Structures are given as structure tokens and as C-alpha cells.
């Protein structure tokens, strides 16, 4: 028996629409009540703390560091850590959402043959982990509008080369990859539907896009925070919001806060079997709720 088999799955359910999510409201409310009580018992103070849990990346029980950076307040007035960004494993140094994505990727790998993988990052610890999972992995970063997709640029920090790719205009031929992975990227792309269509184009039939995003499950419609005008200027419709960027201390502007209509955008962009997979499990260092990893498959015909 493997160590992984000793621990329950973190995957609660898959939802293909807000109506399906809402239809399970009573069951989910009961579950959330129990999960909330467990989470609250762990939050004995506002100081950082450690939690023993199984790490799917390290394949071992490790220490998860939980802190209050980027903490937030719920609609009910409760203050909680930014759960997806914390619970960092002290072995692999991946946070909760990164490890959840790796857990899903590991299950996909067990279920099907995945030959070529594209990851929309290249300089991160997550990329190193994903590269260890699959044999043929291509990574890239977005270096700015002055570069063309496919351009190789020296990266001074690591004395290595970085491939630039714009997800709205990829340099790869049609049907190149079996799997595309992004982590908290699409919220920084104003033309995110165009990026979805490009991902569908370069996936083989039956290929899959797997990704994480900041997601607001109480909303159906995506909130556009900023947009790009015809002259290239940025119009802000809400106060500017910046997220971390491994290549820039200035961070990256968030253009939208996604709601459930992201699944409709994916379907219109050429995907089928689109769903949001909800996870929770303190035994693997995943607390807070509801959080999701998204998956969308390209039709086989």
C-alpha cells in the first residue's frame, strides 16, 4: 500500500455549472458547516503556525506553514488566511492550490497517456515539479508585448533561457500537446476567451486544459476589473488589483474576477466536458472553502 493510499481523496465533487452547484446547496451547506468548524479549531490565534499533513508532491508527511499574508474577511465578518496561497509545504515549498493541481495532474497521469505537456510558466518551483511528472514538458513565461511568441530570452537570475509565449497567440502548430497547464494566469489576460481558443487549437483531440484561477463561486457573471482600450491604454472599472509575478516585483494587473460563466466561455472556445473540481482536506494541508481546480477537454471529433 502506498502512502498516498492511506489518506482520503481531497476531491469533493465536480460541478459543470452554477445551477448544478446551487442545486447541491443543502448538501454543501452541511459539508461547509463541518469543514468550517474544523478550520476554526485550527485557527487558535492570528500568529503563523504549522500543520502536519501528507504532501502529494513530497509523497511524505511534512510540515505545512500557515501564515496570515493576504488574509481576507468573509461576508460574515470572519477573518481567515488566504487559504489557497498559504499552507506551504516546507519540503517542496508549494502552497495549497499548487499541490491541489499536482494532485489532479497525478490522477490524470494515472488514467491516460500524456506525451507532450505545455506549462505557462518556466521559472517557478511548480514548473520543476510538473517537469518531473511528465517526460516531455515545454514551459514559457510572458515577457511583455515587445516579444514574439516562441522568442527565447536569457534569464539573468538563473543564467538560463526563457521561452516567451503569449497565450492569445501561441507559436505552436495545431494539435501539439496532450495537456496544457496554467496557474492563476487567465485573470491577467484581458482577452481570456481568445487565450482559451488558442489552447484548444494547440491541443490534440481529447487533450485537456487544467488550470487554477481566483474564483468567486457566489457569482455567475465574471466581473471585468479593467480593460484595454483601442489606443492600448488601460481603463480601470474597479480599483486596480495586482497579483504576484515571478518575473516582476511590480506584480501583474488583474483584469477580471471570474464567476461560473467561465465554463460557458470555455465551451464557446471549443472545449467540452468542462468542470470545476472542488477540493478540501486538512490531512493534505487544504483548508478553507470552496476552492477549485478547473478542467476542460477538447472534443475527440
Structural write-up:
The protein has 301 residues and is of the alpha+beta class. Helices cover 23% and strands 33% of the residues. It contains 6 helices and 20 strands. The strands form 7 sheets. The protein has a 7-stranded mixed beta sheet with strand order 1-19-20-12-11-7-8. The longest helix is centred in the first third of the chain and has 18 residues, at 25-42. The mean pLDDT is 92.
Strand-residue fraction? Answer: 25-35%
Question: What is the makeup of the main sheet?
Answer: 7 strands, mixed
Oligomeric state of the chains present here: single chain
Tell me, what's the shape? globular
Count of distinct strands: 20
The ordered H/E elements are EHHEEEEEHEHEEEEHEEEEEEEHEE
Span between N and C termini?
A: 39 Å
Give the overall average pLDDT.
Answer: 92
Strand arrangement within the widest β-sheet reads: 1-19-20-12-11-7-8
pLDDT below 50 for ≥5 consecutive residues: which ranges? none
Helix count equals 6
Gyration radius from CA atoms, angstroms: 19 Å
Structural class: alpha+beta
Determine the fraction of residues in helical runs and give it as a percent range: 10-25%
Amino acid at each position: 500500500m502506498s502512502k498516498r493510499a492511506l489518506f482520503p481523496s481531497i476531491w469533493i465533487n465536480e460541478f459543470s455549472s452554477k445551477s448544478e452547484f446551487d442545486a447541491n446547496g443543502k448538501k454543501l451547506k452541511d459539508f461547509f458547516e463541518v469543514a468550517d468548524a474544523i478550520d476554526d479549531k485550527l485557527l487558535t490565534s492570528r500568529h503563523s503556525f504549522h500543520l502536519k499533513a501528507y504532501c502529494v508532491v513530497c509523497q511524505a508527511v511534512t510540515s505545512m506553514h500557515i501564515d496570515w499574508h493576504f488574509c481576507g474577511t468573509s461576508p460574515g465578518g470572519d477573518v481567515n488566511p488566504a487559504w489557497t496561497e498559504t499552507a506551504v509545504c516546507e519540503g517542496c515549498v508549494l502552497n495549497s492550490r499548487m499541490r491541489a493541481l499536482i494532485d489532479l495532474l497525478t490522477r490524470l497521469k494515472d488514467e491516460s497517456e500524456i506525451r507532450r505537456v505545455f506549462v505557462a510558466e518556466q521559472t517557478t518551483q511548480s514548473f520543476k515539479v510538473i517537469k518531473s511528472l511528465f517526460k516531455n514538458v515545454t514551459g514559457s513565461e510572458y515577457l511583455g508585448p515587445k516579444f514574439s511568441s516562441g522568442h527565447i530570452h536569457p534569464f539573468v537570475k538563473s543564467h538560463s533561457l526563457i521561452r516567451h509565449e503569449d497565450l492569445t497567440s501561441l507559436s505552436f502548430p495545431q494539435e501539439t500537446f496532450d495537456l496544457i497547464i496554467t496557474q492563476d494566469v487567465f485573470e491577467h489576460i484581458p482577452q481570456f476567451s481568445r487565450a482559451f481558443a488558442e489552447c484548444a487549437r494547440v491541443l490534440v483531440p481529447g487533450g485537456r486544459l487544467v488550470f487554477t484561477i481566483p474564483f468567486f463561486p457566489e457569482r455567475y457573471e465574471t466581473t471585468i476589473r479593467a480593460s484595454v482600450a483601442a489606443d492600448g491604454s488601460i481603463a480601470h472599472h474597479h480599483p486596480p488589483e495586482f497579483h504576484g509575478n515571478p518575473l516582476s516585483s511590480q506584480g501583474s494587473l488583474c483584469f477580471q474576477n471570474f464567476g461560473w460563466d467561465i465554463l460557458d466561455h470555455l465551451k464557446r472556445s471549443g472545449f467540452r466536458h468542462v468542470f470545476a473540481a472542488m477540493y478540501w482536506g486538512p490531512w493534505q494541508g487544504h483548508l478553507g472553502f470552496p476552492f477549485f481546480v478547473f478542467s476542460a477537454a477538447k472534443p475527440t471529433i
